[in-house]
Design brief:
single chain; about 300 residues; alpha+beta; GMP Synthetase, Chain A, domain 3; Rieske Iron-sulfur Protein; about 35% helix; 2 iron, 2 sulfur cluster binding; Rieske_2Fe-2S; Rieske domain-containing protein; metal-binding
């Protein structure tokens, strides 16, 4: 996915700051070993520092408005790191609806690679309602696509959103969010494989794949098969659903991947749908550009 206009490309430092919150919490937890008083002092210190920087950011945004420099304000609002800080302090200049819409725009290339799309129906309070279009409506990977790709984008752009509902167009009904995915801020959510959670991992080597090339990668201990078709990257769990064996040595012709052992064929451009057996399909893994590098989301428990 291309970088946003006028926004610096992702750097290793960006990836470091993305996990800063987790590191701060780890340090706070370690202070608990010194007793309740030490832990409370550590928490108070963090609150004071966060408040100080929040006041500074508020002053910066006010000065920009006074200077009537909307272009610079826009650049700050669309910089991932700065935007995350503005969100923490309630200073982001963009309304939640716009932020959610732009977040969905950033994941559309991934959805489009599976022949689908997502439509933002409405944002009401802390709830977002979406509708899938194209093959995403019936694709067996729709739930994992929503939870790992769409959810991740919405959570980053609008942390005040706490639930997502999938709306079916005909008939006009709403499927309860908790029947598809856990609440966005729950760390113990369950994905479509019945496993708890997933995490994103950068895989820079994916960018080197040539059109028509297939390669295997190990991502967070899980074997992953990746390929490039017509300029698009695709990632799947390295397991054939027909013979339950590795796909190492698979042949790719156009968008059709053939298992080197049982010869079963799968359409990698259509969410890995089986071409020889109804219901058989590869397990797709969300693949997005994050912090300037291709990254794969691997559900916990997906391994060799």
């Amino acid at each position: 996915m291309a970088d946003r206009p006028d926004t610096p490309a992702g750097t290793p430092q960006d990836a470091q700051w993305r996990t800063a919150g987790d590191r701060i919490q780890t340090l706070l937890d370690s202070c608990a070993a010194g007793g309740a008083a030490a832990y409370e002092r550590a928490q108070e210190l963090v609150r004071e520092v966060v408040g100080l920087y929040g006041a500074g950011l508020e002053r910066i945004m006010a000065l920009l408005l006074e200077a009537a420099d909307p272009a610079l304000a826009e650049r700050l609002a669309t910089d991932d790191l700065v935007a995350s800080l503005l969100l923490v302090h309630g200073l982001h200049p963009h309304a939640v609806h716009r932020r959610v819409a732009e977040a969905l725009d950033r994941v559309r290339p991934y959805l489009g690679s599976h022949g689908g799309d997502v439509e933002l129906i409405e944002v009401t309070g802390d709830t977002v309602r979406l509708a899938f279009a194209g093959s995403c409506k019936s694709c067996p990977s729709s739930a994992v696509t929503l939870e790992l790709a769409v959810q991740d984008a919405i959570r980053a752009a609008a942390p005040e959103i706490t639930s997502v509902e999938l709306v079916t167009v005909e008939p006009s009904t709403v499927i309860a969010a908790d029947s598809l995915l856990a609440r966005l801020h729950s760390n113990g959510h369950t994905d479509s494989h019945g496993q708890g959670g997933a995490s994103w991992h950068p895989v820079p080597g994916l960018a080197d794949l040539r059109p028509g090339e297939v390669a295997g990668f190990e991502v967070a201990g899980a074997p992953v098969l990746a390929c490039r078709v017509d300029g698009r990257l695709y990632a799947y769990r390295d397991r054939c659903p027909e013979c339950d064996d590795t796909l190492a040595g698979a042949v790719l012709r156009g968008a059709v991947l053939s298992c080197p052992r049982c010869r079963s064929r799968f359409d990698v451009a259509r969410a890995g749908a089986g071409l020889d057996s109804a219901g058989a399909h590869l397990d797709p893994l969300p693949l997005l550009d994050r912090d300037g590098a291709p990254s794969v989301a691997v559900p916990m428990g997906v391994g060799a």
